[in-house]
Write a structure and sequence with these properties.
Two copies of one chain form a homodimer. Chain A is of the alpha/beta class. Chain A has twelve helices and nine strands. Chains A and B meet through α7, α8, α9, α10 and α11 of A and α7, α8, α9, α10 and α11 of B.
């Protein structure tokens, strides 16, 4: 049970966390913090938060847990605002999609990652953003990856883990760099591929007609291309090295497919398609095993 | 009203057509044709067809409309079996995903595309196949593209168009080559990209972990990679030139994105992401406008 929860950045991610904890009666008061009073008023009207402030230090005062759900580019500014303001007994975690830069930001501001700071990443989301898109079930059976450093306070890590359990998620711990490598492959690369495809087709002369005759497969394939562009620019930039590596591997494999297709080596296409179909069947079994 | 409908190839596409027409009382008897008696028995047990034969010529005897829903590689064999067997008053259409090769197959078998043959393509489907995956709503508000040739019988085209209207679809006519160009971009290219991504990730050392931490975005993005591999090998081969062209354009654009990312040109990423997001919003408005 969290007596007071501070949510810094009350959008889809932070708002859904508050709603999921409220649903299970796992939180007392929720204090919201953001830059825009209108957004915070909206969050309060939706029942996501109880009260709000635009001052991060004020938001975390007296909080058991504070969760930083701001875009990656705003993370460092939040840490600066929290410098010297985090009281004993307050645990801070974040929800950034890349962990390396969050840790670097913390080191730059605090000298080292404080024992009370537990970097984390809930692997959940939709292509929508903002508090109006928040819903209580977002984290049900989803994975949350925590990447605590060697100097982390064990109790702090346990409290963050307990919070995500209450929110319905399953929690895994791994190293930050490994997290960034895995997410580059499964999340950041697919976003780049989808954005690029829609951008490519939008540049064709008959773009109107192309979209006119696209169907359900195309809609699903490109759903993630409706995600917030600035947020994804930041994620790509923050995970640049791992993403470039993943992109290069993909480009090489796609190049071989294109060569095989152009050369009439259709059996090579078949092997790739069969391998992919089988691998995805395994992935679906994994997904089913979670629920 | 179709008194007798012949479905040659009773799987997802042909089975769903029969079910959608039955739903509206738009068909009398449905005759199924296929190679495997077990599959046809199954289709009869599901109420998709009334009776069946493994002989295409027998299947189309006395039919008002015959719809060839076999894989592209089987199309020519069906045409050979139908040579001399199509009676006056019977209209034949197909559901092949590529129209150029269907027309070439018809020309090879019949000398020219017969006036009673109307090439077509319902832009609908799922990643599943087989008659058990068939459902009556598959074509509701979906597009069907007909690519009749100059020598087509106007009444034959009108009857095929009327059938698809009864199935719930909207019908557009265009040239076969243009169809193949558009579908290369919106359907065949995305399939290749999705298959390649799953194959790429399946080749990574930590593949198990990668799929373990993939989420909903990845599931949707790769859904089409669960489609039938042999069918998609055939589609890619049949639309080789247009698909190679689309792939090359995509590769070039992806290469520029990779360069921008590697060089730290994040504003270029942002422009691509913004352009894609806006284009997809337009695509979604198109989709909504249909329903």
């Amino acid at each position: 049970m969290i007596q007071r929860l501070a949510i810094l950045g009350v959008g889809l991610i932070g708002g859904s966390l508050a709603l999921s904890l409220r649903r299970h009666g796992a939180v007392g008061e929720v204090v919201g913090c953001g830059r825009r009073p209108e957004g915070l008023e909206r969050a309060a009207a939706l029942g996501v938060i109880d009260r709000w402030t635009t001052d991060p230090a004020e938001a975390v005062a007296g909080a058991d847990v504070a969760v930083v759900c701001v875009p990656l580019r705003a993370m460092r500014g939040i840490f600066e605002a929290l410098h010297g303001a985090v009281e004993p007994g307050t645990v801070v975690t974040d929800a950034g999609s890349v962990k390396g830069t969050v840790i670097a930001d913390a080191e730059a501001v605090f000298g080292e990652v404080p024992a009370w700071l537990v970097p984390g990443h809930p692997i959940a989301g939709t292509e929508h953003s903002g508090v109006d898109a928040a819903f209580a079930e977002l984290y049900d059976r989803r994975r949350v990856i925590l990447t605590p450093l060697a100097g982390a306070d064990a109790d702090a890590v346990a409290r963050v883990e307990a919070m995500w359990h209450e929110a319905g998620a399953r929690v895994i711990r791994m190293g930050a760099d490994h997290h960034d490598e895995v997410l580059a492959a499964t999340s950041h690369l697919p976003h780049v591929l989808a954005y690029t495809l829609v951008d490519t087709l939008a540049g064709w002369d008959d773009r109107q007609e192309i979209f006119e005759y696209a169907a359900g497969g195309f809609r699903d394939f490109t759903r993630i291309a409706s995600s917030d562009p600035a947020m994804w620019r930041d994620i790509c930039a923050a995970n640049r090295d791992h993403l470039v590596h993943a992109l290069r591997r993909y480009q090489a494999d796609l190049g071989q497919i294109a060569e095989a297709l152009a050369a009439g080596d259709d059996e090579r296409l078949l092997r790739v398609f069969e391998n992919a179909q089988a691998a995805r069947a395994g992935f679906l079994r994994l997904l089913e095993g979670r629920s």
